[in-house]
Amino acid sequence: MKKTRGRTGRKRRRKHLQSFVDGVNCSHKLEYIKLKKWLKDRGFEDGILRPAEFRGTGRGLMATRALQAGDLIISLPEKCLLTTSTVLSSCLGGYIKKWKPPVSPLVALCTFLIAEKHAGEESPWKPYLDVLPKAYTCPVCWEHHAVNLLPEPLREKAQEQRATIRELYLSSKAFFSSLQPLFAEDTGAVFTHGALEWAWCTVNTRTVYMKHPQRECFSLEPDVYALAPYLDLLNHSPKVQVKAAFNEQTRSYEIWATSQCKKYGEVFICYGPHDNQRLLLEYGFVAVDNPHSSVYVSADTLLKYLPPLDKQRKAKLSILKDRDFLENLTFGWDGPSWRLLTALKLLSLEADEFACWRRTLLGDVISARNQQQTWKVTTQICHFLIEETQRVLLQISQLRSGQETLKSQLDLVEMLHLEGLKILEKSAEVLCRWN
Description:
The chain is mainly alpha-helical. The protein has helices at 2-19, 30-41, 84-88, 93-98, 105-119, 126-129, 144-147, 152-178, 187-190, 193-206, 276-283, 299-304, 313-322, 338-347, 357-361, 368-402, 407-434, and strands at residues 23-25, 49-54, 58-63, 72-77, 207-209, 225-227, 235-236, 242-247, 252-257, 268-269, 295-296, 330-332, 335-336. Mean pLDDT is 91; it is low at 1-19. Among the domains are: 82-227, set domain protein methyltransferase, domain 1, CATH 3.90.1410; 295-434, set domain protein methyltransferase, domain 2 (Alpha-Beta Complex), CATH 3.90.1420. It has a three-stranded antiparallel β-sheet with strand order 1-2-3, with no helix packed on it. A three-stranded antiparallel β-sheet has the order 4-9-8, with no helix packed on it. Belongs to the class V-like SAM-binding methyltransferase superfamily. SETD4 family.
């Protein structure tokens, strides 16, 4: 009998340990203890979620009990939220109200984050600042070697973001200097380009949507940001849906489950139906098997496989450009998109078919020859992109051996291309069946 009880006990322990196999509870760590106490002092009570480290996603929140659709996951009181109201009620408020031309809500939040981080132990927001990332994995923070390995549309957007931060820094320098009475050190040493990049990424990656009334002390850009301590530990999954909004009655930001989550499982929210290029650009990660993901086809790639001597080529391109058919041409998990096929169908029209171009844009079949040519060119483009992706993956593996400092950036760009390769291979299968 004694032996049997031992076996049952071991089974029970194994089952209990199995529950934690994907996530390691981190609520005992000092930074989380301090954060929870700080939140509790501001009216936050939470018995459902625990900070944890997960194998696939890193830091996140674990459910301490099974969650059902309709359950309230988290309710964060307004006092815990960091908004422009927080900034205006701080020592920065008077300076912001006096400054002309008015700063944007984004600059106000960035300024507050930099100032509070610099204040260190004296900042009332220190428990929150201590759990924020020290550095971000978004392409805007990457070395140019890694940025150059990104697909073309994403590479351009990352460079645009970098230019945006640079412009924001230069245009805000005079405002930063006006804050000198608040600092013992020179403001130039506090409000550096690196500090602004960190603050901008904090706002860009971690805010929840919360509309605030327009104030005269701010510029006309929408004031829709709220940083939500603890809540912002929730990771994204494209496969879940939640209801999230600020509740005017309870004066809290609330998230409600619309699906189930097992006990000790990671609780996910959905940042939106974003593809992997958008997720990497805005949040600094790639989602494996993301159903919203696709591979983009540039206009240059499109034209590589079309007859250069086509007399209607210029007119066709003009039609596509005027109707916005040279952007967002993609391959997805179910093959080439309707937009891509339509653009190629129009570009493949023979001289005697060109008068039917309007029907093409409506999705009509013009001729068997046109269909065949469209599929042929689509297949050629798909195979070209597969080869291009394989070439970049080879480049990444060669770079990795000599660039230890780029490892995390190369891992992310490799992951993006591997996901893209899976999509292109699926598309190639679809096209093969069509042909």
